[in-house]
């Protein structure tokens, strides 16, 4: 079974923002803006909620969502807050885009990563246990990247929807079954 660990989306409002003013005008539980460290404004609409990073260019990124629904709800609430401040019209034409959905999954059994790296094809795999404990698998003709750990835990990234992650995981399971049968 696959579950979402993090969903990330972004949008360009099409207007430049005075991020210091946005910070002072929004009454939120968490805001951080320190342009000497980083030029983006960090904010959360609810404590421990998804993080929104806002840039002067009018672009923003929402991360830390555990569902796609939460990602879209956070986007809607943020646009409403900006609309209430007359910063932007919530009905602007630019579209919110899901950029990355990070999912996790679990294989039924532990995996010998040395053997699996050969079975998956060395041209599609990076495995350097001295540098990183997992195997990095980039299947040919697939946008997803899978991190495979010896305990069978899988992290799937690089897709913009859960279906992409499910497809990548299914492909990996088939490869693992083939290598187990040999």
UniProtKB/TrEMBL annotation:
Family matches, as InterPro entries: TBP (IPR000814), TBP_dom_sf (IPR012295)
Record-annotated membrane-spanning stretches: none
Keywords tagged on the record: DNA-binding, Repeat, Transcription, Transcription regulation
UniProt entry tagged with the keyword Repeat: yes
Record-stated family: Belongs to the TBP family.
GO molecular function term, any single one: DNA binding
Stated role: General factor that plays a role in the activation of archaeal genes transcribed by RNA polymerase. Binds specifically to the TATA box promoter element which lies close to the position of transcription initiation.
Name this polypeptide is given: TATA-box-binding protein
Domain of life where this protein originates: Archaea
The keyword Signal appears for this protein: no
Gene Ontology biological-process annotations: DNA-templated transcription initiation
Pfam families noted in UniProt: TBP
